[in-house]
Amino acid sequence: MPRFTERTDAAVASGPAVDPTSPPGVRSGRATLALTSAATAVALMTYTAPMVTLPETAADLHTPLSAQAWLLNGTPLGLAALLLVAGSLADDYGRRRIFVAGTLALGVTTALGALTSSTWLFTLARVAQGAASAALLASSLGLIVHAFPSPRGRLHATGVWGAFVSGGIAVGPLITGAMPSWRVAYGVLGAAAIVVAALSHRALTESRAPRGGRPDLAGAVTFGLALVALVAALTLGRDGWLRAPVALLLLAAVVLLGLFAVVERRTATPMIDLGLLRRPGFLASSTGGLFTGLAVIGLFSFLPALLQQTLGLSAMDTAWLFLLWSGLSFAVALQARRLAGRMAPRLQLALGFALHAAGTLALLGSLGSGSWTRLLPGLIVAGVGSGLLNAALPLLAVESVPAQRAAMGSGAQQTFRYIGSCAGVALTIAVVTSSKGGLSHGADIAMVVSAVLSLVAAAAVAALRERTA
Questions:
Q1: Percent of the chain at pLDDT above 90?
Q2: Number of neighbours of residue 342 by Cβ within 10 angstroms
Q3: Is 371 exposed, middle or buried (0-12, 13-18, 19+ CB in 10 A)?
């Protein structure tokens, strides 16, 4: 593995360079944590915006049910395709530079999304929002690792960052539900991202982990195209896995991933060191991210729309109800750092998945009950589980790679998370809409699938160390 040297670069930073051998100042660390957490929250608010407004957005854009998965999967597609690439670029070319560019691009693309008039234009805007979010999310943890070099400070900072992931998910539906229309909500979120970008350009200090040699452009292109093909196939697959377009996209994804592996083994400066796949911590981080997207995000992205259709709830009522789940997730993620000395992040992941499974099973029958109160126990238990997942994943992501490559580690974990999200959303919609027993019965089947996947993830993550020792 090539040796990396962490340094700061005054030539690309407007702020003063910081000697990497000495910890950054407390004020600088607080500013870094505040701005990266704020940008992360805005990115997650944008990500969750369609959750409670899907019926309204689909009606406004004349989107048929068969195409509504694209309204939800546009952002995960952009995220999955570029997270790892963005993390590698942030480490090599400057974390602040990539972070500010991503946050600014998120603001612009979100505002443009509010002006779209068709399903495909909106989907393209959502894909662009995902690409911009990839840049800011991957680089944010790299900035945090540089600003908090001590293990104790890093534990606190990653816990706060993970809590703001939950916080963005909690506040996003409330903001969009409270606005006069989904277009106004997108305009507000776009403006917020632009403000954070402007503040970050002035307040953050640049850092990078430069490596000798040329950038891994071939790896970036092959990996990005492979993920685009894979996610597109997963989204289209709900209409039939044996159709020619789906088969061709899956074949293209396999071929491109094979080319990516060849490129990474031959280049002197790989985008990702494939040797990391032998590390139990990296495997646990990647597995945890994949199943969080597949089992948790996949179900809960479509559940709000189901509640509106089966229980007759308004967008705002649905947002308040889901605040119980996402708000608990936020609170638990903030406090989960207290478990660090008692429970390894890997076991915390396993517990989080087990609680999500229990909460999801408690939701069975709730959509056909006619009362929203029937949802409360399941949302509470699942919310606690989600909080544990959101706290453990970022810590495990940066601990499982060299400190100089923290942004890459973050990008890898989140790449798997949003690949799982795309597959999970497509799977959930396919299961629900194909049920002959109606939406409520289909939702119950989707909940069972989510619970089973969570239990598989819990067992896999818990046993990973023993299997790889």
A1: 32
A2: 8
A3: exposed
Instruction: Using alpha carbons only, give the angle 416, 421, 422 rounded to the nearest 5 degrees.
Output: 105
Helix (H) or strand (E) holding 63: none
8 domain-assigned? no
Range(s) of the domain holding residue 334: 26-205+269-468
Q: What is the pTM of this model?
A: 0.74
- Under 8 Å between Cβ of 367 and 313: no
For 182-205, letters b (16+ CB in 10 Å) and e give bbebbbbbbebbbebbebbbebbb
Inform me whether the pLDDT recorded for 463 exceeds 60. yes
DSSP one-letter code for 37: H
Q: CB neighbours of 111 closer than 8 A, spacing ≥ 6?
A: 186, 187, 190, 191
Tokens coding 146: 């540089």
The Cα–Cα gap between 248 and 52 comes to 33
Q: 144 and 229 in one domain?
A: no
Encode 377-424 in three state secondary structure.
Answer: HHHHHHHHHHHHHHHHHHHHHHHCCCHHHHHHHHHHHHHHHHHHHHHH
Same domain, 235 and 377: no
297 and 359: one domain? yes
Q: What is the pLDDT of residue 341?
A: 66
